[in-house]
Amino acid sequence: MSTTTSGLSAVRVGELDYLAAWDEQRRLHEAVVAGERGDTVLLLEHPSVYTAGKRTEPWDRPMDGTPVVDVDRGGKITWHGPGQLVGYPIVRLPDPVDVVAYVRRTEQLLIDVCAEFGLATGRIEGRSGVWVPEDDRGPARKVAAIGIRVARGVTLHGFSINCDCDLTYFDRIVPCGIRDAGVTSLTAELGRPVSVADVLPVVERHLATLVAA
Predict the structure, then answer these.
(1) Is 114 a catalytic residue?
(2) Record-annotated residues binding substrate (predicted)?
(3) Above 70 in pLDDT, residue 89?
(4) Which pick of 48, 94, 104, 112 has the fewest CB atoms within 10 Å?
(5) Which of 114, 163, 165, 176 is catalytic?
């Protein structure tokens, strides 16, 4: 299923293996770079997988032999899997390319999505992603992660938001290389089930935020 908002085509993929999704990203990237296709966002779930960005250190990786896919995005290691909505925007950035501004727009999209479900989130200086601030339940907790790459002015990789995933998968790694903060989900924070199916249409409504004003 595909919908178009503000010139962005959103494609609901369903569940797709990480490497197959990576191949599809690269195919779309070539088409967008060549001007053969407009900006496209893939929205999907992955079977359980760990992916390591370019800044991943050996001690960030799982110690139990769990397979890890090394990828060419920024950032460190993270987990993707059932109950987590992943978005891969293949978007041409305006000239001059401002990667930081694009990351901020992606964060704002995710902050706005969380707000629609009644969860107040924000940014933490020096750390990417979207966070539930420190409170009486514990230290700051990441509910959505961002890891991107820009090649020839067009983005790859993207964001993930934890809906109702099994958070114990993050216990095997140092997620995003951060040892002094936790990982959470919409379901865990709100105390009620929030599924990928619930979050998908809300993310689609906010995709226009990715496009520079």
Answers:
(1) no
(2) 73-80, 145-147, 158-160
(3) yes
(4) 94
(5) 176
